[in-house]
Here is the input.
Amino acid sequence: MTPNFVVYDTNILFSGTGWRGSPYHCLQLARRGEVTLLTCREILVEFQEKLQVKRDMSASEATRAAVKILSFSRLVEISNTLRIIADDPDDDKVLECAVVGQAEYIVSGDHHLLELGSYRKIRIIRAVELLDLFPGVVRE
Here is the structure.
């Protein structure tokens, strides 16, 4: 059974907009409407910050990249009250976004999230594992 609602961690958004690997193909699934990508302002802000710091993008370029992601996503409002990952509290926003949006999957490359395996019946998987759920997806 293929998932309907997914949350992509910031690292998936970052990698998916810079290279054509598995994260890129995950973004393509959302662009084509094969999955509903759930996100929140907090994830998008972190995405913009990473683009500026790690890719030396201007603030306006980073904002355009975030707006592009938002154009094929469903925005979820979180309260920032979930506290689960003590070693990396930034990851809590990803979990909370998934809970509030009733996601079936979180797609991440972050070991803190992946080590959980699941949270409240939400499976936490790598990008390649999501793609494996869509056997017809073309990968370069």
